[in-house]
Amino acid sequence: MKPVSSYCKKGLFLVLSLCTLFLVLSILPVHGESELYDNVLRLHVIANSDSDEDQALKLKVRDAVLAESEQLLASCQTREDAIAKTKEHLSRLEHAALKTLQAEGCNDSVRAELGEEVYPTRNYESFCFPSGSYLSLRIVIGEGEGQNWWCVLYPPMCLSAASADSTQNDAYISVGLTGEQYRVITETDTPRYRARFRILEAFEEALR
């Protein structure tokens, strides 16, 4: 007959193993967080060059595109609606950017296009999105060789990320983000969500 202490050790080991398993499962992306990449439409504005003038123009173009897209996407209830509306009005968004440049006395061309892009981890005020492949609206100014500006076009986080509006959670969930997805991008300063955030990035990297 084995000593009682060996049974205690086995029992303790089993309890610790179960606790570890529970902890790991609690941070794995098993609540739809991996679908985060398929629930947003990003915005990517690329400057002509890194000169101070071109970088300033980039921000003016950004503001013009955001103002135009806010009107275009105001009635969209899903990401699919936003994508369809953006595709339909690419020339309108392109024209808004071009008009802004011309008003500043700049003759650079502008190109608006939709496509998949690989993004690094990005912080937007109170939001942080994991790196990965996202569908995005690209606004390329001139040669497109300058520093870029990223944000989230849909849901419209570019315009309200700095807002303290307590209804943001419900607003973003209503357009496709789940509660877990919302918490992953807004609570990355907590250990649990920071770990889940990193796992998400590794998950996306493994799919490439």
Task: Extract low-pLDDT stretches.
Answer: 17-30, 160-166
Largest sheet, spatial ordering of strands: 2-5-1-6
In terms of DSSP E residues, the strand content is 15-25%
Number of domains: 1
Strand/helix succession: HEHHHEEEEEHHHH
Q: What oligomerization state is this entry in?
A: single chain
Overall mean confidence score, pLDDT = 75
Structural class, from secondary structure content? Answer: alpha+beta
Number of helices: 8
Q: What's the end-to-end separation, in Å?
A: 55 Å
Number of strands: 6
Q: In one word, what is the shape?
A: globular
| Rg over alpha carbons | 22 Å
Helix content: 40-55%
Describe the overall structure:
This protein is 51% helix and 19% strand. With 208 residues, it is an alpha+beta fold. It has one domain (33-207). Strand 3 (122-124) and strand 4 (127-129) form a beta hairpin. The chain is globular and about 80 Å long. The model is unreliable at 17-30 and 160-166 (pLDDT under 50).
Topology:
Layout: H1 4-27, E1 41-46, H2 52-73, H3 79-88, H4 90-103, E2 110-119, E3 122-124, E4 127-129, E5 132-141, E6 148-154, H5 157-160, H6 168-174, H7 179-186, H8 191-207
Parallel strand pairs: 1-5
Antiparallel strand pairs: 1-6, 2-5, 3-4
Helix pairs in contact: 2-4
